[in-house]
Sequence to fold (157 residues):
Amino acid sequence: MDGDASLGGSGGGGNVEEQHQFVGVNSLLFITVICSCLLIGRIVAHYRFYYLPQSCASMLFGFVVGAMLTFGGPEESSYVAFNPSVFFFVLLPPIIFDAGYALKKKSFFQNLTTINLYAVLGTVVSTVCFSCFCLMIPALHWISSLWACQVRTCSSG
Fold:
């Protein structure tokens, strides 16, 4: 009985140690990837690779790191788990801030008509395609009639 209690206690302690190690390795990996992206951006800017923007170089680096972790095995891929909250509250705001900060006002106002045309036209086309698809689903008998009524209401409003 005493041996079982000590095994249960050590299993809980091991679990805490594993979580601590997981957080440490995950944080180290995250910081390493971010610093590497900053370094790659600096190299791209220094050597003036006009055909490769800094953001594209960072995405390619992220793709390579993700592929290595995915194909490395289950232990390595367990360190990277997508968390939407972290993305929307930690990663996305600096990206948007940087895009707004680096925006050239003259180019923006010269292309304002094109930007608005894409925004409005893209929204209209997306709405029409989504509505047609939602109206087409009940006709193909993929869903029940009660839910079809909800789909028609959703797509018309």
Observations:
- Confidence is low (pLDDT under 50) at residues 1-13.
- The chain has two domains: 1-103, 104-157.
